[in-house]
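Hi there, hope your week has been kind to you so far. For a while now I've been wondering how a particular protein folds. I'm sending you its amino acid sequence along with the backbone structure tokens. Could you read through the record and tell me how the tokens relate to the sequence? Take your time with it, there's no hurry, and the full record follows here.
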Amino acid sequence: MVITKKGLVLVTTAVALSTVAVSGAGIHLSQSQALIQSGPKETIDEVWQIINHQYVDTTFNNTDWLKVREEYVKDATYGDREDAYEAIRDMLGKLEDPYTRFMNPEEFQNMRIDTSGELTGVGIQIAKDEETDRLIVISPIEDTPAFEAGILAQDIIVKIDGKDTIGMDVNDAVQLIRGERGSEVTLTIDRKGEQSDYAIVRERIEIHPVRASIKDTDLGKVGYIRLTTFNDLAAKDMQRAIKQQEQEQVVGYVLDLRSNPGGLLYSSINIARMWINEGTIVSTVDRKGISDRESAKNKALTDKPLVVLVNEGSASASEILSGALQDNKRATLLGTKTFGKGLVQSVRPLGDGSGLAVTIAKYLTPSGRDINKEGIPPDVLVELSEEQLEELYGGDRSKIGTIEDPQFSRALDILDENIQAQQRAEPQAAK
């Protein structure tokens, strides 16, 4: 997730900013000037200093960080920027933190574009899988070439155009996967031990984060809202959808966060405030143990029963929203356990136009749960078979959010129970 705050960009997505994209924007003048002023060694020292002052773990994951500076700054010489960039990545590798990463100027510019909702590429969110030392798909972005090709959350990328990904850095993978619009890239995917090649044509991608509709059911009108990512349009679109469905007098809601990999931090907080009238939404804890808390503001747009659909592709911002709704007993979570990304990164521009994402804090759900690597378990577990997953996400996607969607169908049952419980409670509240 990303938010601009005091000149920084805070990131809490599971490498969501590594979305394959092509930069179409230039570097601002102030950064262009810095390109002349900052040499290779100065850039390395700048990275070292940021880690030294901001990294969430003051032991630096049991690394002698002062000794690292001697090795990479004091006792080393570099011929050009590329040598320095290679050294920075090697230096950061000593932290063994997949979320603390360096971006060269092009990659940094791509990251900034990723949050705008306009991408060019195949449309996947990727991270490093620690167990296999390969790249894992957090989620394909809906209605993108990767999604259309049948790429699923938790797929392991074994090869990119025939190049083995074992030990490959996420940034290097991004460079291989992205390319010109209309060109093709082949991803070799391992899905539960079976490998398949997916030839995907790169394309310009427009992200429409909110898809809303009203379902006529035996309960009456049910508002169905599917949120595919938390970009800077998500909160406004969500607000519009809820208000429209309130005007239609829906009896309850199903909010679909399945395979939503995250996005903007304050987008998730603002959306939570549309559903929760009071209570904590999320807390962050930095290296000094100082906690920063975000709360509801008595501005909920509805108090009608809510069921939230989640799965293993629901990450980061999705988990902040899900955790807030669950801990405040505002909604019933249904599906499977979420991804498990509970760390916060600050993305900093460097003097030569490159950028650095550094883990600076962890976030906790309102009840104080640390969900990193654990995920959020649903209140109601409803798993889908391999065949059902293929049918919903790899085949006819028109079945998502319909009675032919087993998780949505079960959500209606739960919603019915919640509506009846709310109706039984209303007369008591009126006495």
